[in-house]
Amino acid sequence: MTTSFFNANIFVESIIYELENIDNAAKQFLTIIGDAKKITLTGDLGAGKTTFVKAICRQLNVIDETNSPTFSIINEYQSTTNTLIYHIDLYRIKSEEEAIHLGIEDYIYNDAYCFIEWPEVIMNILPERHIKIRIENITKSSRKILFL
Predict the structure, then answer these.
(1) From first to last of its 148 residues, what are the pLDDT tens digits of the chain?
(2) Phi, psi of 56 (to 5 degrees)
(3) How far is the C-alpha of 63 from the C-alpha of 60, rounded, in Å?
């Protein structure tokens, strides 16, 4: 682990993990981000954005089945502690107006966790306080999460 993100006394630039240890990386990620709940994820197709969100959901004790929201666009999950989690995939959304028409602001301006893949079309309307990460493939079985 190297350093560059801030949260109190925690300073992290990236998290590197093997896929077999993704749950540990998700736990570390949640510790680093503290009480931040709006997270954007970028990365190439197949980089592991959805896989990482699923690992985070396991750490948050989500009771629902977690799936890719590629076609549904927005998946809603609940944890054993009644924590609400939204997983949003904007890959197929072409404009900010289309996202607004879907009601995206209702999801990004509340107290729930909100993980947003392909956030480029809504960057102008995201809350000022959000975490930006990029997931990159290092090898076939290892990834790097960069805090941007």
Answers:
(1) 333 444 444 556 889 999 999 999 999 999 999 999 999 999 999 899 999 999 999 999 999 888 888 788 999 999 999 999 999 999 999 999 999 999 999 999 999 999 999 999 999 999 988 999 999 999 999 999 999 8
(2) -65, -45
(3) 9
C-alpha span between 110 and 135 (Å, rounded)? 25
Residue with tokens 């995201």: 126
Do 146 and 134 contact (CB within 8 A), yes or no?
A: yes
User: Over the range 78-106, which residues count as b (16 or more CB within 10 Å of their CB) and which as e?
Assistant: ebeeeebbbbbbbeebeebeebeeeebee
- Could you tell me how far CA 135 lies from the centroid of its own chain? 10
Spatial distance between the Cα atoms of 122 and 17, rounded to a whole number of angstroms: 29
| Spatial CA neighbour of 124 closest among 108, 136, 112 | 108
Q: Give the predicted TM-score (pTM) of the model.
A: 0.88
Domains of the chain in sequence order: 2-147 (3.40.50.300)
Find out whether 72 and 90 touch, Cβ atoms under 8 Å. Answer: no
Q: Which residue has the tokens 């999460």?
A: 145
